[in-house]
Specification:
Order of helices and strands: HHHHHHHEEEEEEEEHEE
Distance between the termini: 37 Å
Strand content: 15-25%
Radius of gyration: 31 Å
Number of strands: 10
Largest sheet: 10 strands, antiparallel
Helix content: 40-55%
Structural class: alpha+beta
């Protein structure tokens, strides 16, 4: 078992460091995108891509840093558990190296015992040397992992700051933009009456769709659309839609060109955004903390809708996380429901849930 553990520790650093290197390259590319987006012609589109690039890079870097840290700890624990064995090994090697050759060739009980002792020592020395070589390799690996962890941790810290800067720049660019094309003007009073009379999400969405003019766009099922937020689909929540676990402050975007029928608090769903990508088809998003859109706006695919809530985990918190980046206590969730006509339908007919 000790040999297997040693081989695992020796083989792991290369993969762990490579993951961190690849993630660092993603974050560097995102930083370049941010610098270009600040003066880009289509700033909102560029900043949206930049935020998404940072989110993808941070997911990879979080995993890389955690992996390096865990493997470094495994080697440290193994060395600590073998401390007495290592001390005996070093002592034996030191004693052998300091013993004059004339002494090793003699024995107080005569030449025959001296020959036997020499043969025993000859058999032991290669094994001791091999053990020493393995120990040296293990310590070199621990040192390399420590250096990789320090570099990756600093890169992760810079990436977290860059993502925050990109989100702030995106929010400012949206605030400064000129008005988007509008399909209709929302009536606040009529919307308030619909909310007050609705007892379920189905009641509200059905009434809302009946109040706004129909769109002439068409979008068929089996469109294999991307999810509105990068994350993990959680097990069945007892509702007709799906729940997506994502990182704090994750960016939510439109899966397809759509009209915003409604945005605001609704029942017990929190802040809700209802998109109409096609006649009689609704995408309902619930759980946003910040919303960038207004009712009546017409948005292209991939346009920013808003941000999830929460506070991004700092480096120290990331190093102590277990498992997936989206399954810790700091996770945020987005509820996605698809309605075709007046009925809720399975989202996997529309979205690439894999």
């Amino acid at each position: 078992m000790k040999i297997a553990a040693l081989l695992f520790c020796l083989a792991s650093p290369l993969a762990a460091q490579q993951e961190a290197v690849d993630a660092a390259a993603q974050l560097q590319a995102a930083r370049v995108q941010l610098e270009a987006a600040e003066s880009g012609r289509d700033q909102i589109k560029a900043l949206t891509a930049t935020v998404q690039a940072y989110e993808a890079g941070l997911v990879a870097m979080r995993a890389g840093v955690r992996d390096i840290t865990l493997r470094e700890a495994a080697i440290a624990d193994d060395l600590a558990a073998r401390r007495s064995q290592v001390a005996q090994l070093l002592g034996a090697l030191s004693a052998i190296s300091r013993t004059p050759r004339q002494v090793t060739l003699s024995h107080p009980q005569g030449p025959q015992n001296a020959a036997r002792a020499g043969m025993l020592l000859a058999d032991m020395t290669p094994a001791l040397q091999a053990e020493a070589t393995a120990l040296r390799t293990q310590m070199d690996t621990a040192s390399a992992l420590r250096a990789a962890r320090e570099t990756a941790t600093q890169t992760l810290q810079d990436g977290l700051q860059g993502a925050q800067t990109a989100r702030a720049a995106l929010g400012q660019a949206i605030s400064d933009r000129t008005l988007l094309p509008m399909r209709f003007d929302a009536d606040p009073l009529q919307t308030a009456l619909l909310i007050a009379s609705a007892e379920t999400l189905q009641d509200f969405s059905t009434s809302l769709a009946a109040e706004v003019p129909n769109t002439e766009t068409t979008l068929a099922a089996a469109a294999n659309l991307p999810l509105p937020v990068a994350g993990i689909v959680l097990p069945d929540n007892g509702r007709p839609g799906i729940t997506i676990a994502a990182a704090p402050r994750a960016l939510v975007t439109t899966p397809a060109p759509a009209t915003i029928l409604f945005q605001g608090p609704l029942l017990d769903f929190g802040t809700v955004v209802i998109l109409e990508p096609s006649t009689d088809v609704l995408f309902i998003l619930a759980g946003l903390a910040d919303v960038f859109v207004q009712s009546g706006e017409i948005l292209p695919a991939g346009a920013p809708v808003g941000l999830l809530g929460g506070t991004p985990t700092g480096v120290d918190g990331i190093l102590t996380e277990n498992g997936s980046s989206f399954t810790g206590q700091a996770q945020q969730t987005l509820y996605l429901e698809v309605r075709d006509g007046q009925a809720a339908v399975n989202p996997d007919a529309w979205f690439a849930l894999e």
